[in-house]
Amino acid sequence: METLVGLVLCAASSSVLISAYPISPDAAECELREDILVCDYKNNGESYVHYEDPANSTITLIAILNAQEVLLRPPLCKNLELHNITKIEVIQEEPIPCHSGYDGQCEKGGKLSTYNSGLSTIPFGLRELYIKDSTVDFLGPNVPREYSIHHSRVKTLNITGYTGSGQSGFIYNSTIDDLLSMKIEPNYTVFLQNSEIDHIHQRAILVQGGNVILDNTSVMSAYNNSVLLTASSSMELNGFEGNLGLKTLAPKDAFVETFNESNTLHTPFTDDEHSTENVYYKAFLSFLVLFVIMTLLFLIQALVIKRRMTIHTNSSTFVDPIPKLLLVDRTSITQFRCCQTTSTKVTVPQMGLMTSKTSF
Asked: The pTM is what?
C-alpha cells in the first residue's frame, strides 16, 4: 500500500525529519473510509507528521487530527484537512521528486482547510483555502482566488497575487493585525464582515478594477493613501467605523457618495490626498488658529483706535479709526469619514465623464 504521509529520505533533500509518524492506510492511527483517509493522533502525545502529497492515488481527502506539528511540502494536489494541530509549518521551496512517477507538480491544486490550528503560512499552488478558528502568522504572498476565513486571526496579511479560479474572497468575524498589501484584480470582490483591522499601511489596498465591501468592519489606524482605487473600481462601506485614507488614480470626475435616510451628499474626489485620520483634531486646530488670529486683530485694532483717538485729541486731526480688515484665505480640504449609521460607496468611473448615483 502506498504511503501518503511519512518520513521522506532523499539524497537531494537538505533536511531529514527523524521522528515523523507515517500516515498510510496501514498505520495504526489511520483509517480508510472509502476515498477519505483519517489519521488521529490524540493518544500519541507529541506527534510530528511530515506531509508530502503523492500524484498517484485514489484517495481524494486526507484528514489529520490532534497532531503536535505537521510539516507540509507543497504543492498539495489532494484536499487536506487539519484539525487541532498546534503548529503547521510549510517548506517554501520546490518539491523534490522522491516518488516514482511523481514529478512534484499537479494540474489542479487541492483545498487546504484548517480548524482550531496554528498556521505559519500557506503553501503555494492551492485551489481553495478555508480557515476557521485558527491563527495565521503570515497570509501571502499568493493565495487562491477562492478563500474564506472565519473566526480567525491573521497576524500579517500580504496578498500580492492569486492562484486558481474564483470570483471572491471572504473574511468573517476575524482580526487582521497588520495589513501590508491586498491586491484586488478586475472582476474580483473581497468581503470583510464583522471584522477588525488594527493597522493598514500606506498604499496597502490596491483595487484594480475590482470591488471591496466592508460590512460592520472597523479600522483602528491607517496611513494616508492606504486605499488606492483605479478606474472601474469601487469600495462600499456599511456600518464602517474608524479611519481610512482614500486616493483615486483615475480622472478627477470620481465621486464619494454618502447615503443616509434623509439626503444624498456628493463630494468631489480628486487626486489630492484624502484622509480621515485625526479629522476632528485638525478641525479643532483650524478653529483655534482662526480664533487666535481674530483675537490678535481685535486687540491690534483696539490699540490703533486708542492711539489715533489720543492723537486726534491732541492735534484735532481726524484719523480713520477703522483699518482695513485682513483677508484670511483658507484652502478647503475634502475629508472622508463614515460613522456607524451611514453607508458609503466609492465608485471610480471608467470614462472621463462625470457620473453620480443617488440611492434611496
From this structure: 0.67
CB 192 within 8 A of CB 215: yes
Task: Of 82, 71, 85, 87, give the one whose Cα is nearest residue 110.
Answer: 82
C-alpha cell at position 183:
491586491
The CA distance from 71 to 135, in Å, is 16
C-alpha cell at 353: 465623464
Please give the share of the chain, as a percent, with pLDDT higher than 90.
Answer: 38
Q: What is the largest CA-CA distance in the chain?
A: 119
Burial of 76 (0-12, 13-18, 19+ CB in 10 A): buried
Pairing of strands 343-348, 233-238: antiparallel
Per-residue DSSP letters for 126-159? -SEEEEES-EEEEE-SEEESEEEEES-EEEEEEE
| CB contact at 8 A, 164 and 207 | no
Beta-bridge partners for 347: 234, 255
Query: Pick from 99, 53, 48: which is nearest to 73 by CA?
Result: 53
- Rounded to an integer, what distance in angstroms lies between the CA atom of residue 85 and that of residue 72? 12
pLDDT in tens, 183-217: 999 999 999 999 999 999 999 999 999 999 999 99
- What residue type is assigned to position 321 of the chain? P
Cell of 101: 512517477
C-alpha torsion 278→280→284→286, nearest 10: 70
Query: Which of 19-23, 51-55, 305-309, 356-360 shows the highest mean pLDDT?
Result: 305-309
Distance in angstroms (rounded) separating the CA atoms of residues 21 and 51? 10
Distance, CA of 19 to CA of 25 (rounded, Å): 19
Angle formed at CA 86 by CA 85 and CA 88, multiple of 5 degrees:
70
Q: Give the three cell numbers for residue 235.
A: 469600495
Contacts of 234 (CB under 8 A, 6+ apart): 207, 211, 212, 345, 346, 347, 348
Closest CA to 283 of 245, 246, 330, 241: 330
How many other β-carbons are positioned within 10 Å of the β-carbon of residue 269?
23
